[in-house]
Amino acid sequence: MPVAILGSGNIGTDLMYKLQRNPMFDLRLVAGIDPASEGLARARELGYGTSTDGVEAILEEGGIGIVFEATSARAHRQNAPRFKEAGIFAIDLTPAKVGPSVVPCVNMDDGFDAKNVNLISCAAQATIPIVHGVSRVSKVKYAEIVATVSSRSVGPGTRENIEEFTLTSQKALMEVGGAGRGKAMVVINPADPPLIMRNTIYTIVDRDVDEQRVKDSVLEMVKQVQSYVPGYRLTVEPFLRDDHFMIGVEVEGAGDFLPPYAGNLDIINAAAVAVADRYCATQF
């Protein structure tokens, strides 16, 4: 499948290395707007086509089947109709929420007909599988997540999108995770040495919940995420206190572009590749 990456920052550059390893994809172009971008320089070194003309370059390239957008929510809202008109399937790694929200191990096939899927946020990809694991056993009245990420792993595009990041993640806790209400928070930690991505999940459930069934369901979801994000692991097993479960997970990155502490980049890019793999399987 001929594919292109729009955005040559941290996320786009890390994604380039993941696509390079996957024989399903033919990476034709990495497009950005900054001539001094490290991501574009690395793409050229690897022999990929590059451009500083952004979306225009991808539309002019022709033959692209999938575009991975790693720019900003504002940019994707403008670009999405143009990709759809060109017949390009868009995988949106911004919190623009143009297409349906997708978490690979929860609702993989949603949005394929729309030719646009939204991967919500790195925090959502790390925590929604856990909320879903609880909600398929017991009604989740409220879900709250706190994602802590290293400042070094958060580029200018992500910082610009923090408000959208929070709101889109909150909505997805309900729409995809199954919670009645949701709240999402992110902590950008400047600690040096940098800390690995960590996530705390809090869910309020019915008091007569079967605790063991919830634990088994959550552990099964962890295994499913690990099938495409090997560095995903449980740090606090589900434990019930009165009417709520507390659960902790962390994500260690594969170290493709940024060091392993940048699990937030790794999980959203791994999710993007998993969605693209599935989309390709429906086309051939």
Automatic annotation (TrEMBL):
Gene3D superfamilies: Dihydrodipicolinate Reductase, domain 2, NAD(P)-binding Rossmann-like Domain. The active site is at residue 122. It holds the Pfam family Semialdhyde_dh. It catalyses: acetaldehyde + NAD(+) + CoA = acetyl-CoA + NADH + H(+). Signal peptide: none annotated. SMART domains: Semialdhyde_dh. It comes from the Bacteria. It is an enzyme of class 1 (oxidoreductase). NAD(+) binds at residues 8-11, 153-161, 264. Its EC number is 1.2.1.10. Residues 2-114 form the Semialdehyde dehydrogenase NAD-binding domain. Keywords: Aromatic hydrocarbons catabolism, NAD, Oxidoreductase. One of its GO terms (molecular function) is acetaldehyde dehydrogenase (acetylating) activity. Belongs to the acetaldehyde dehydrogenase family. This is Acetaldehyde dehydrogenase. It comes from Cupriavidus phytorum.
